[in-house]
Amino acid sequence: xxxxxxxxxxxxxxxxxxxxxxxxxxxxxxxxxxxxxxxxxxxxxxxxxxxxxxxxxxxxxxxxxxxxxxxxxxxxxxxxxxxxxxxxxxxxxx
Length: 94
Description:
94 residues; alpha+beta; 2 helices; 4 strands; 51% strand; globular
C-alpha cells in the first residue's frame, strides 16, 4: 500500500452537516481498500480563480494509505459528486 494525500474543495454554500457527510463518504470509501491516517478540515478559503462560479471553497485534506488501483475509483466518486468543486490526489513521497 502506498501513502497518498488528497485535497478536496467543496461547495462553500453547504451546511456543516452536509460537509461532514461528504467527509464520511470519502473516508468510508478509502477505508474499504486502505486506511485513512488523518482528516484535516481547513475551513473556507478564497480561491485563486473562479471555479464553477465559486470564489471560495471549503478545503479538506485527507492523508491515507491505499492500493494504487483504488485511486481511480476514489477519483471517479470525486468527479460525480456535485458538491466537489475541485480535487487532487497525489502520492506522498516521504
